[in-house]
Amino acid sequence: MKKVLLFAVAALMGLGLSSCVKEKGTAPEGGERQEMVFKLTLGNKFSTQTIGAAGTASDANLNNGVVFVYDGDECVGKEALDVTTATSGGQLLSVLAPQVGTVYVVGNVPGADEAARLAVFSSIDVAATGVTGSTVADLLAITSDITTQQSDYLDVALMGSDPYDAATDVITAVGATQGQIAVSVAVAPVVSRLELLGVRADAAASTTGMYLARFDVVGVYVDGWHSEFTYGGSYAGSPFVGNNLTVNFVGGADELSDEAAAGTWQFDAGNAMNAQVSDPSVTPGVGEVWGYQVASGFTSVPRIVIGLTNIKITDGSTTTARGMTVGGVAKTAAELAAETFYVSITGYTQGMPVTPVASFLPANIYKVSDVSINPDHLGLTPNPENVALNVTVSVTPWTTVTVAPVL
Q: Of 49, 157, 266, 406, which sees the most CB atoms within 10 A?
């Protein structure tokens, strides 16, 4: 009798990727095709690059996908996922399933239609007469680009897998599902997410006794990041680096940035001589963060660069604006107010005891809480060598990681 393979695919962010493959199984008796039915449950939409609400462990959206069936380390079937059908009555897949195998689901693949999504994975051969099926490593090595995902689907690329065994996974209870093989595949993001929750003026003085009394955030940028990633959860290609830009942090198509006119994202101590501990931080909006997807696994972490203008410096004894030296260059109070300066976050720490974050892991959200800045942190250009702000992060599974900036 035919067996029906039932998949429950959940967009669960807290689970890591799995490439576990069971021992190669055998085809059904007589070569009979086993029916495979997908059933999906969906999470919430989470954009690739956005000013919006902070991400949580349940944020994701599955818009499309491709299903792969492996017999041991050999692909024996692939088919486009019909999300609408799969989330209602279930999608019947015409895949010859082995008695023991592993199912891989790739979600949110760029493409105008289902055929285009399958074309993304055209290098994956299905086992047939005279044809050897591609390996799991071949599947996990396929690359895509975050900027491509951005222009097509705002939702993060997903990947998940689950091994099954018809001998143990058959549902035996009496009812419509009797005889079906139950396989649950949890899909998780294959990239990381970096979030900046806010920027605040430090109430403490700089090393020269100066205080920040006003500033406008005119840009938040990500530098030293990879836009290309693999479906195995790693980076590919070369990083985008904009180290020596002096006027505008422009990175073309690969730029991750948000900009606003002066006065939009502003801190002003008003009549106070300097910032107070109770002063609010600057955010892109109520309950919102600056958030960006980046490829995972690179041996150095992506950097956040914050562009500031309309800066007012005081000595803490009066409200009078003062000049100061930035990057070895003397700046008048008028120049500090008129020009653009940069605060560069070059590293992150987390936990107790404090541990440096060496690289970003897939399916993790690295949350940078309020970054406290003072005049010492100002640079004439992004990533100045003499200014290194290191921040603390927290990590959340989507997973979220809360990080602290290092100054």
A: 157
